[in-house]
Amino acid sequence: MFTNKEYCEDEELYEFLQSNHKSHYLQSSEWAQVKINWKHERIIIRNDGKIVGTMSVLLKKVPILHSYMMYAPRGFVCNPDDKETLKKLTEGVKQIAKKYNAFIFRMDPDISDDDYSFKETMKALGYKSGGSRKTIQPKFVYRLDIKGKTEEELLKSFKSKTRYNINLAMRKNVKIKCGTKKDIAVFYKILSCTAKRDHFCLRNIAYYERILDSMGEEHAKLFIVECENEPVAAAMAVFYGNKAWYLYGGSTDKYRNYMPTYLLQWEMIKWARSKQCDIYDFGGISGYQNENHPMYGVYRFKSGFKGDIISFTDEFYMVFKPWTNAVWNIIFKCYSRLLEIKK
Questions:
Q1: Average pLDDT of 196-200?
Q2: CA proximity to 283, closest of 251, 234, 243, 246
């Protein structure tokens, strides 16, 4: 039912992940290589010899509890209406849990929050959902449908202010180049500047290098923006299946009046279109519901590209060892509280 050795070189699996409309870069074997501190298992379900469903499961050991937690980022890759495949995927999850003595499995599938039929199916399979637990991946994202649209049609669909800012950047001779691994230092310096300004945590530079190495040129791209020959903005995007994602990015305070980030997003959208993607994902918009939220400005910027707000279903989880899970929840709450105090 599941394998954990040969899937990386399995051409059939790769083709399935590229063609299924529920495919996600977080469910790829390439992304599992980025998560070096996690073990990895791959569940593969077949019907009449053909792959009909798969799930990448990450496992992290909690030494103090002598047990593992399991996590499937963005859930499974299969037809969400295929109840039999979902059942077999769940059986695979239980087998992995037994193998590693895991105490919990969590998943946050790429499923709309209004898909009530799917929620009922998951409940019938023994999953619980929601509660006070925060999702690991963004609950709300902003996506632009680019399927079958020309560059002219897309540009015309943007808000007038966004179009103006894109054209302004071009008039100011803002340049965007495709970066390589050699440009990671530049990318990281700009990202660090943004993290300091906007108060968010930053991973070490090796993490971003691993993304480029593991995803490869086929699935990851670095963009560097220059104004007056000076790097002022940068972004990393990934492509997988029928979607492209704006993954990480930032800008300096210098030359902000040149509107470099608008042109940067437009170039990434055009790149996604060149990859024949159906969807360009701008990433999370946690503060979109409240104009006073510190992240509302991020939403206002993204909304200028006239995409759609996507609300994902709540996280689903399955507890295998209730007592161990209860202890972990206490430890995690204490740790989270300490981080808040430190901030």
A1: 82
A2: 246
What is the band of 290 on the pLDDT scale with cuts at 50, 70, 90?
A: confident
H-assigned helices in 47-141: 83-100, 116-124
Instruction: Find the angle CA(248)-CA(138)-CA(220) to the nearest 5 degrees.
Output: 30
* Two tokens, residue 51: 């792959």
> Structure tokens of 39?
């073990």
**Would you state the torsion angle of the CA atoms of residues 135, 137, 143, 146, taken in this order, to the nearest 10 degrees?**
-140
Phi-psi bin for 199: left (phi > 0), alpha (psi -120 to 50), beta? left
Give the span between the Cα atoms of 225 and 262, in whole angstroms: 11
Locate 315 and state its tokens.
């996280």
pLDDT, tens digit, 9 for 90 and up, residues 202-254: 899 999 999 999 999 999 999 999 999 999 999 999 999 999 999 999 999 99
Structure pTM? Answer: 0.92
Closest CA to 26 of 93, 94, 106: 106
The 8-class DSSP code of residue 312 comes to B
Q: From CA 109, how far away is CA 121, in angstroms rounded?
A: 13
Lowest mean pLDDT among 125-134, 186-195, 228-237: 125-134
Helices 116-124, 83-100: inter-axial angle, 10-degree rounding: 50
Instruction: Pick the closest to residue 244 from 293, 280, 291, 207 (CA basis).
Output: 280
CA 62 to centroid of chain Cα atoms: 24
Strands 67-72 and 102-107: parallel
Enumerate residues 6+ apart whose C-beta is below 8 A from 23. Answer: 17, 77, 240, 241, 242, 243
